[in-house]
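User: Structure please.
Assistant: Input sequence and predicted structure:
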Amino acid sequence: MNNILEFKNIGYKDSSKFLVKNFNLSVCAGETVAAFTDSRDEYSIMLKLCAGLLVPNEGEIFFFGKNINIFSALEIRKLRSERMGFVFSKVALINNMCVADNIALPLRYNTSRTEDEIKNTVRELLAEGGISCYADKFPYELPLGVQKIVSTLRAVSASPAIVFYDEPMFGLDESSSKIFADLVKRINSEKGVATVIFSCQSDRTWSFIGKKIYISRE
């Protein structure tokens, strides 16, 4: 099976000190991978490397077989907006936009779909996430578990090839964690979206994860 994303012997250093060293990762369509680290700084770097915001000091990063280390800034932005989705630990929703409009953002900015098509897609996503009743609510009116679902639906709304999650379970209780995990699992299986989760919480139950790896400086 062809890889969507591949890291080959990645090293990244701050001044003279390596923060990530000899890191390897391959992710296929529909696969769920969790990358664990002891330091938030390390997985923050990994997220930025995935997004093309940083260039590694060592190794190569491939997206659909193409080395993105040599992409132009414009090519990186296009790749990020069209093929990648991101879900942040602090959700990063826009507070003065309702839930439906938050989910619609990637569709309005990164696709050529009509407004009717966008509204239909958002309606379907709200139903898939079980949050249709929150469509007209604002983020500050929502419990954290629902905010995470909204952020996830926004990330997948424009049909990316891969979604990166930054501590997705942070702040969630057991019930909310299960609901969120079930949603991610469904998205993977039904939409074929690859998932990469970066987390410091390796002791949590990650029953929906297909592959686990650990980020090391050495």
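The helical segments are 40-50, 73-83, 99-110, 115-128, 144-156, 174-191.
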